[in-house]
Amino acid sequence: MPLTVETGTGNTGANSYVSVSDFNSRNSLRGAQLTGDNGTAEQVLLIAMDYIESLDYIGYKKTQEQALQWPRTDVYIDGYAFSDSAIPMSLVNAQCEVALAIDAGNSPIADVGRETKREKVGDIEVEYMDTAKADVVRRSVDVHLKKLLERTTSGVGTVQLVRV
């Protein structure tokens, strides 16, 4: 399935907030490169969208018919009204960060295994702290989505990317 980018029109067939070429350009500027171990750029962007679309965003979908969560109405970012015919750059950046995490084997929608208390292979032994998390947290996704997510009683929802 080719990517159809949402540009703020409320496209009923959109499935991404970023094109492969824009994703590659963004990665190039930041010195990031896909390994390709977990799919093509198009594939990891689509998997990233499965996660991005599952989140609870501020405001309301602009139309009932649009395929994706954005564009949205009644959105205020830093106290200013955000256009209901635009896609926040921070959302595009978050999709790119999640796609890079998926490429690195850290998917936010992967199953979570049990935490390792102790593992021994020959003379090598690893034991994690009792408070260690079993998953990898990619803070850059939180940074991009912070102002776009609904607030919870404990603050803003946390994005955790799980390594499988």
Question: Can you give a write-up of this model?
Answer:
This protein is α+β, with helices and mostly antiparallel strands and 164 residues long. It has helices spanning 20-30, 41-52, 89-103, 139-145, and strands at residues 60-61, 72-73, 76-77, 80-81, 106-107, 119-121, 124-126, 151-152, 155-156, 162-163. A two-stranded antiparallel ribbon has the order 1-2. Strands 3-4 form a two-stranded antiparallel sheet. Strand 3 (76-77) and strand 4 form a beta hairpin. Helix 2 packs across helix 3 and helix 3 runs antiparallel to helix 4 (139-145). The protein is globular, with a radius of gyration of 18 Å. The mean pLDDT is 86.
Produce the secondary structure layout.
Blueprint: H1 20-30, H2 41-52, E1 60-61, E2 72-73, E3 76-77, E4 80-81, H3 89-103, E5 106-107, E6 119-121, E7 124-126, H4 139-145, E8 151-152, E9 155-156, E10 162-163
Helix pairs in contact: 2-3, 3-4
Instruction: Report the uncertain regions.
Output: none
User: How many distinct beta strands?
Assistant: 10
- Order of strands side by side in the largest beta sheet? 1-2
Terminal CA distance: 25 Å
Question: By helix and strand content, what is the structural category?
Answer: alpha+beta
Contiguous helical run count: 4
The share of residues in helices is: 25-40%
Rounded to an integer in angstroms, the radius of gyration calculated over CA atoms is: 18 Å
Main β sheet profile: 2 strands, antiparallel
Element order, helices and strands? HHEEEEHEEEHEEE
Mean pLDDT: 86
**What is the molecular shape?**
globular
Q: What percent of residues are in strands?
A: 5-15%
